[in-house]
């Protein structure tokens, strides 16, 4: 066993079984559904199906990040056990949680001078963040120490590719990512925006594709263009979805058709309540290792 804790936020959108099996600790974000408070606890307090069904019926959602006090208590639980901590946060381009975790770290340094607390910006989100955490768990299990693992994260985090599409523009309009006028026109034309997470960890619209079948092809084409070793890619590949499993399965099937070494290896997860509050139901996200994000 390693002498340090590997940790992330619940927004890595892996299921609890996966996180437990990989010995990755996590701390929960929070959300509101029609003014009722919930922890973003991987679908335990409210199922993802019920959450997205409520959104589809018009329920309003709000999200809140982990507070400094919560981070302090969380980190200290490990430090008291004599463990060092490497915590990767949800992208700073999406959330301010990096700042809260950093403040908590700084407050604990004097109290635990012999312990290491690394806080690193994943520049990732959803199961792309999970993809990064899974790789860090691999390296830890292979014997990499906490100092080298922290540096590896800094050096390689931008190689984690994220490509999303949404089927319903109203949630992007609500969040201000698409204007009301553009959204109204896009809805009439059946536009499905293809987005990615850029080099600063921000969600950016990259193309406006007409029709779901076309955007699925465009999404997978990004993997063809960018994946490590091209069509010989054989690394981890995750897809997350917000209550639209059939669309996610269609993406996975096309990947397995184009990438011979990926047969049966694509894993499908649910988009959690924090990310899903902003993207809404009908979102499919694809994550793989590839070229470093540069824009």
Output the keywords.
295 residues; alpha/beta; 6-stranded mixed beta sheet; 4-stranded parallel beta sheet; 11 helices; 40% helix
What does this structure look like?
α3 crosses α4 and α9 crosses α10. The chain has 11 helices and 13 strands. It is globular and about 55 Å long. By secondary structure, it is of the alpha/beta class. Helix content is 40%, strand content 24%.
Summary, kept brief:
By secondary structure, the protein is an alpha/beta fold.
Q: How helix-rich are the residues, as a percent range?
A: 25-40%
Low-confidence stretches: 181-186
Number of helices, counting only DSSP H or I runs of 4 residues or more: 11
- Inertia-based shape: globular
Strand neighbour order, sheet with most strands: 10-9-8-13-11-12
Radius of gyration: 19 Å
Distance between the termini: 38 Å
What is the H/E order?
Answer: EHEEEHEHEHEHHEHHEEHEHEHE
Described by strand count, sense and barrel closure, the largest sheet is:
6 strands, mixed
**Percentage beta strand:** 15-25%
Number of strands: 13
Average pLDDT confidence is: 93
Structural class by SSE content? alpha/beta
Write the layout of secondary structure elements.
Blueprint: E1 4-9, H1 16-21, E2 25-27, E3 30-33, E4 36-39, H2 48-56, E5 61-64, H3 68-79, E6 84-89, H4 97-109, E7 117-121, H5 126-141, H6 146-156, E8 160-166, H7 170-174, H8 180-188, E9 191-197, E10 203-210, H9 212-226, E11 237-241, H10 245-258, E12 267-270, H11 273-279, E13 283-289
Parallel strand pairs: 1-2, 1-6, 6-7, 11-12
Antiparallel strand pairs: 3-4, 3-5, 8-9, 8-13, 9-10, 11-13
